[in-house]
Write a structure and sequence with these properties.
Blueprint (H helix, E strand, L loop, with lengths): L1 H16 L4 H12 L9 E6 L7 E3 L42 H26 L22 H11 L2 H23 L23 H29 L12
Antiparallel strand pairs: 1-2
């Protein structure tokens, strides 16, 4: 009889080992009830980024935009946000279409690229990188008064003549901001960064493919200029010996 009871207890213990655990079931239920991960809406897991093939493609970078090679390792373009609040008061936002993240970032990329193309050229030209120092007329802008581009900011601020540049930049920002307000309110369908500024007619009579080639050149040169300007400023600031062209 004792042997029989021992066998029954052993079998019962063995069967309990394969029975579902109530705690495990509870954890699984909680896991299944959790909301979807934000990450799943930010990437396309079926494709890899062209620029970074070891990462999934950001969901908004589908290659339809000129210069888009899927480079967004921080997936900032995938963050859903309405940027119209940066350029218009809250009471204007009612009925607004808003400005999506990708549109705002392309606008910013083109603007920074254009500014840096001018800035790099200006920095080098003022330091005589093209054979002679290109300066505004007047003694206060001469090489004797402003030896190089690296020292120009502090010296011109002390002179007080940088106020005009501040006013000019403020006017440009005001006008470009007005265009973005029209976009946010659905009154304009312009492409990001397009101000119809083509005084030399480079795009006149061109096919869509030719226009896209020109746009791609601008994007690539702008990206290069941002790196180049950051590089020349950093190199110039390495020490007194590096302030003047060619900065080494």
């Amino acid at each position: 009889m004792m042997n029989y009871l021992a066998v029954v207890v052993a079998l019962a213990g063995s069967a309990a080992a394969f029975a579902p655990n109530a705690g495990t079931q509870t954890c699984a239920s909680k896991l299944n009830s959790m909301p979807d991960r934000k990450w799943d809406t930010m990437v396309d897991p079926s494709q890899r980024s062209e620029a970074l093939p070891f990462l999934p493609r950001p969901i908004n970078l589908d290659g339809s935009m000129v210069g888009d090679v899927g480079f967004d390792p921080m997936y900032l373009s995938s963050i859903e946000k309405d940027f119209s609040g940066f350029i218009q008061p809250p009471q204007w936002e009612s009925g607004s279409n808003g400005i999506p993240t990708l549109y705002w970032m392309r606008e910013a990329e083109l603007k920074h690229g254009r500014v840096c193309m001018l800035a790099w050229f200006g920095w080098i030209a003022a330091d005589g990188g093209f054979g002679f120092p290109l300066r505004f007329p007047g003694e206060i802008y001469s090489v004797a008064s402003v030896p190089n581009s690296f020292e120009a900011h502090d010296l011109i601020v002390d002179q007080g003549s940088l106020g005009f540049m501040l006013i000019a930049i403020a006017m440009v920002e005001f006008c470009t901001g007005a265009v973005l307000v029209e976009v946010a309110r659905g009154e304009s369908d312009r492409e990001a960064g397009d101000y119809s500024l083509d005084p030399l007619g480079f795009l006149k009579g061109k096919t869509e493919e030719e226009k896209n080639k020109m746009k791609l050149r601008e994007v690539k040169n702008g990206r290069l200029a941002m790196l180049a300007f950051a590089g020349v400023v950093t190199q110039s600031g390495m020490g007194d010996a590096y302030h003047n062209f060619p900065y080494f």
